[in-house]
Amino acid sequence: MAVTRGFLGRPPADSSRVPPGQYVTRDFPVLSAGPTPHTRLDAWNFTIRGSVDNPVSWSWAEFQALPHERFTVDIHCVTKWTKLDMAWAGVPLDTFLDAVSTPAAHAMAFSDGGYTTNVPLADLRGGKAWIVDEYDGQPLDPEHGGPARLLVPHLYFWKSAKWIRGLDLLTDDQPGFWEMYGYHTYGDPWKEQRYYGD
Ligand SMILES: Nc1nc2c(c(=O)[nH]1)N[C@H]1C(S)=C(S)[C@@H](COP(=O)(O)O)O[C@H]1N2
Ligand SMILES: [Mo]
């Protein structure tokens, strides 16, 4: 059977980069559980607290002065969109975590507006997670979490807390906002860990 180029359309995206049950989109959808907070930069800080010897905070100016990395990653949302090759800039979490001494194995990210999400500390270390303040060469749009958001690209995107203000370090895992509503506690897109029990 003859199939013209038009019927074939665009070649499919490299399937090795698309987790099961996901489709590739070019859009950057906005998904927020509440209104976009607008915190003044002179009132903003990033704080590591909880199960630590001493809590530590960075002002916006101090955060800006930290060495930033530029990197490109694929993002997978539990609502089934995947967006490839997203270009970000931010500070690896290692930079912040190296400033505290802690027996904790878990972190609860907390944000302006009250959003929380839990992530194992090991998933925030080793250059796998960042506090980002730039997307696609521009300051991070408030709708997408500006001035700064957590980015944990190897987990579903709900773990990447927008408007982040800090981490509560915890010795025991606890559910965050969506995790209390039945989302998976860990959220590995390659294992389709969408909901509790997956
Ligand atoms: N503070 C906060 N962070 C959040 C959310 C939220 O509602 N509030 N939604 C999460 C969810 S469910 C997703 S899919 C992504 C969406 O990010 P985006 O709006 O930049 O696409 O942010 C995550 N981080
Ligand atoms: Mo989401």
Automatic annotation (TrEMBL):
Pfam families: Oxidored_molyb. Residues 1-21 are annotated as: Disordered. Residues 34-178 form the Oxidoreductase molybdopterin-binding domain. This is Sulfite oxidase-like oxidoreductase.
